[in-house]
Design a protein that fits this description.
The complex is a heterodimer of chains A (about 300) and B (about 350). Chain A is mainly alpha-helical. Chain A is built from 12 helices and no strands. The model of chain A has no long low-confidence stretch (mean pLDDT about 85). By secondary structure, chain B is an all-alpha fold. Chain B folds into 2 domains: about 5-90; about 105-350, MetI-like fold, CATH 1.10.3720. Chain B contains 13 helices and no strands. Chain B has helices at about 15-50, 55-60, 65-75, 80-90, 105-140, 145-160, 165-175, 200-210, 210-250, 250-260, 265-300, 305-315, 320-350. In chain B, helix 1 (about 15-50) crosses helix 4, helix 1 (about 15-50) runs antiparallel to helix 13 and helix 5 (about 105-140) runs antiparallel to helix 6 (about 145-160). Classes of the chains: A mainly alpha (about 300), B mainly alpha (about 350). At the A-B interface, helix 5, helix 6, helix 10, helix 11 and helix 12 of A face helix 1, helix 6, helix 7, helix 9 and helix 11 of B.
Chain lengths: ~300, ~350
């Protein structure tokens, strides 16, 4: 990750950085050194990197096509030659389906993050910057969404929109954005009276320009930490919707839907439901460990 | 999870009864507004999102005259704001329409299924508090030790494991393999309807009736789903307890108590935990609310005939009235618990009065 040549290290750890870039790199490097000492966080990082690799090259790793049915090989136990994690009720290789399914999970998480982070940033910074009535109205709306239990609102939305991945993403996004708006607003309130904001205003910068150019960049880092911490929650809600039959539709190898289809064979062929569940668990644990470690590094006041 | 309200800005305004009344009015206004917002969202989901609510209600094979009649019956020819006003008025009276699936009024259905959810969530919260609070205290006192790490990992696992999968695994191990516990459901078929449903909570009803066979059976059914839900609340409660305790243990009054020569046990469990309990009440109330809704997936896995099971079942049968009615009720309970934790917070913390 980082080369350990002494000059680069000295440059990074310099107590008197010569440029903002060097200061930033140095801060990141010190954070990394601290992060590296935390075995749990490193485990999380490995899991997440592993997920990215699997999603990227899954098709080449998978021994079978995820939809390839072979009714002669139905419900084979794990460890059978050629089917390391066994087969499901249609003779499809579970390992291959899990590998392909990682793409669906990553897609959902990425789409939700892309919708939620900018939306929360926009609402929070605008509310915090303008204050007054704008603030009251926007934060009231945020509170209403916070008052909703997450899964129930997602269920109601999906039932109106119809099942499917896109609608599951919309439903999860609608239930996920409010905390981001809260965070962005809190950050904005701490900086909006700063001199550099006043200076920008005196130079004639318009409000949208100040919000976008000065305030949003400063709120981004705390929003990113929150995104990492939220990933596991998003994965679990998505898998829950899939389990209820409201997310990805068959024959898609979405992990939650795979657990759901294995439920019928639980008592005799336990592996059909167990294997994809382990995949969900490992990936969300990875994100949680990573997020926990990142928070310790980036946000020391919360660290315990 | 909303943090406890900060009253720093409002402190010092007004005196005595007038101030309390003013704050109560403020609180009520904000609750009312939130509830109205909740209704606006469900109204939006039910009336605006579906392309044509008439077709959603009666299917697409109807002739034009029936279509117009149904449209009028549903009040869809009125302007949108008037529809919303009607919707709010009906909701305030607990009128959410009829369920297509059971053909009962939705509110009657909800009244019937809610005790089952309440029973499950309450037992789960008891498990979460009884195990989670001591775990958090021990983790804070032995900070950085192996015990602390173990409790941290246990909590992180709780945050990461899909509840529906854990439920299935529990059934697989304790029901199918070991045969220690009964399978899905709330009570054995044999005991169904044996006790008079006074409260609807079987554990309480059978205890009142003194029918201990039923009580034992209901208890053996609730153990597994409640432990699994309780684990999730344990994860959250132990983590919060730990951080509240860490904050308290750094305070000077702890040093004073130790210098006075009090037993370490008293210092930790009475002094520090006593103060940490105040914010902890809010956390417990919130986690209780999350369990009421988080039980959706658990109820499905264990065929537990509660609110989550009802909502999901209606959803899979395109029964929008039941889904939205259930959503409003769960949201209202959520708001109520938030209010309760707010009030408890003020009662327990003299500084917040």
């Amino acid at each position: 990750m980082t080369t350990s040549s002494p000059t680069l290290r000295a440059w990074l750890l310099d107590d008197a950085p010569a440029s903002p870039r060097q200061a930033w790199c140095g801060r990141m490097f010190r954070g990394w050194l601290q992060f590296r000492r935390n075995p749990l966080a490193m485990t999380g990082l490995c899991v997440v990197v592993g997920l990215l690799i699997v999603a990227a090259i899954g098709p080449w790793l998978a021994p079978q096509h995820p939809f390839a049915q072979n009714l002669d090989h139905r419900l084979l136990a794990p460890g059978t030659q050629g089917y390391w994690l066994g087969t499901d009720e249609l003779g499809r290789d579970i390992l291959s389906r899990i590998l392909y399914g990682s793409r669906i999970t990553l897609t959902i998480v990425a789409l939700v993050a892309i919708i939620v982070a900018p939306l929360g940033l926009l609402v929070g910074t605008v509310a915090g910057y303008f204050g007054g009535l704008v603030d009251t109205v926007l934060m009231r709306i945020t509170d209403i969404f916070l008052a909703f239990p997450r899964l129930i609102l997602a269920l109601a939305l999906v039932s109106a929109l119809g099942p499917g991945i896109e609608n599951a993403v919309i439903a999860i996004a609608v239930t996920t954005w409010p905390p981001y708006a809260r965070i962005a607003r809190a950050e904005t309130l701490t900086i909006r009276r700063s001199d550099f904001i006043a200076a920008a205003r005196l130079q004639g910068a318009s409000s949208p320009r100040i919000v976008m150019g000065q305030i949003v960049p400063l709120c981004t880092s705390s929003v990113i930490v929150r995104v990492t911490l939220d990933m596991a929650g998003i994965i679990l809600v998505a898998a829950g919707l899939g389990f209820l039959g409201l997310g990805a539709q068959p024959p898609s190898p979405e992990w939650g839907a795979m657990v759901s289809s294995g439920r019928k064979f639980l008592l005799d062929q336990w592996w059909v439901a167990t294997m994809p569940g382990i995949a969900i668990f490992v990936v969300s644990l990875g994100f949680n460990l990573l997020g926990d470690g990142l928070r310790d590094v980036l946000d020391p006041k919360d660290a315990g | 999870m909303s943090p406890p309200p900060s009253n720093a800005s409002r402190r010092g305004r007004g005196f005595g009864a007038a101030r309390v009344a003013g704050r109560a009015a403020n609180l009520l206004l904000s609750i009312g507004f939130t509830f109205l917002g909740l209704l606006a969202v469900t109204f939006f989901i039910g009336r605006v999102v579906p392309v044509d609510p008439v077709l959603a209600a009666v299917g697409d094979r109807i002739n034009a005259s029936t279509y117009d009649r149904v449209r009028e019956e549903l009040g869809l020819n009125l302007p949108l704001w008037e529809q919303f006003a009607r919707y709010v008025w009906n909701a305030l009276q607990g009128e959410f329409g009829r369920s297509v699936l059971t053909s009962n009024p939705v509110i009657d259905d909800i009244r019937r299924v809610f005790p089952a959810t309440l029973e499950l969530a309450t037992v789960a919260t008891v498990i979460g508090v009884v195990l989670g609070v001591p775990a958090g205290v021990v983790a804070a006192v032995k900070r950085g030790s192996m015990v602390d790490q173990a409790i941290r990992v246990l909590g992180l696992v709780g945050y990461s494991v899909p509840v529906f999968w854990l439920g299935l695994m529990g059934l697989l191990v304790f029901y199918a393999k070991l045969d220690w516990l009964p399978g899905p459901g709330r009570i054995d078929l044999l005991y169904e309807g044996m006790v008079e449903p006074l409260t609807g909570v079987i554990l309480i009803d059978s205890a009142i009736a003194g029918d201990w066979d039923v009580f034992r059976d209901a208890l053996s059914h609730v153990v597994l789903p409640a432990s699994i839900l309780g684990y999730f609340s344990l994860a959250y409660i132990s983590r919060m307890t730990r951080s509240f305790m860490l904050a308290q243990l750094q305070q000077e009054y702890i040093t004073t108590a130790r210098v006075k020569g009090l037993a370490e046990r008293t210092v930790i469990w009475r002094h520090a935990l006593g103060n940490a309990m105040v914010p902890l009440i809010t956390v417990i109330a919130l986690s209780y609310g999350t369990l009421l809704e988080g039980s959706v997936l658990t109820e499905i896995v264990f065929s537990w005939p509660g609110l989550g099971f009802y909502i999901t079942n209606s959803l899979l049968n395109a029964d929008m009235n039941a889904v939205l009615g259930g959503t409003v009720v769960v949201g209202a309970v959520f708001i109520g618990l938030n209010l309760l934790s707010d009030i408890l917070y003020r009662l327990l913390d003299p500084r917040a009065r």
